[in-house]
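stuck on this fold:
=====
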Amino acid sequence: MQYSHIFGPVHSRRLGRSLGIDLVPFKTCSYNCVYCECGRTTVETMERQEFFPVNEVLDELREYFSRSPKLDFITFSGSGEPTLSSSIGDVIRFLKSSYPSYLIAVLTNGSLLLRPDVREDILPADVILPTISSVFDETYRKIHRPAPGVSAMDIVEGLECLRSEYSGEIWLEVFIIPGINTSVEELDGLRAAIERICPDRVQLNTLDRPGAERWVKPASPAQLEEIGRILGLSGVEAVEPVRYELSAGSTMPGQWSDDVARVHELIRRRPCTLEDICASTGLSRREILKMLRKIQSGSRIEEKREERGIFYFCPEQDHTRV
């Protein structure tokens, strides 16, 4: 079966071996974050809808789980905000009833959590991983460039509502951009918000791959350590730098017609170094370079050097569903 709505498994920095479920079209989001590794948002919206027939997604899941794969998590994520999909509740309930042994995670920017219907849809998940970056509207808008009608404190209030109703774990990501949300005032505001939200874990994160805007730079490990100290909360942890490892059956049998398609899909979903592609596919650097040249003959590939090396990625206009 050719998969359109599920991807991976990938080796997530926070969730281990994770099967991704993407319920929204590419870059359909309520935010246009300056740090997004998928590039700029092309469809900015706060309106929920069923973007794809839910039975398409369920059929892919039935086929994939017929092989009893080994996973740490099933993760609702992808190239946009997953809670924009009005199907997310149906898919979570299907997984919980049909494959109860698997843990479910939802990665969300938190922009829709003030809505009771959104919270109800994701309550059966085992872990919810929302993001917060600032409690000040000016900074919040500079970082996330949200759709009209949402403010920084809406995020905090939505997370408070979630905490009051949700019995699972909340792992709160605090995304750090040096010079933007790292002043004493910003960190004091974040600390107060975290105390209101009462997450189970607080995870400091920063840029690891090329972001949507070239001016965004990562915080150093020393900066993250100092920010954790300033926040002064027990359990604050920095998200470890991404590490890739090849494991048996790391990609889904039948998904790719050939290795070129596998490599193309990887760099369409997120920027990757040669080492990332090697670890995800088991191919050699020489093979991958040949494939990148072949892909380049049919579509554009861009390169950008970051601290981890040269990243290869497809520009926004080349992101279409496989």
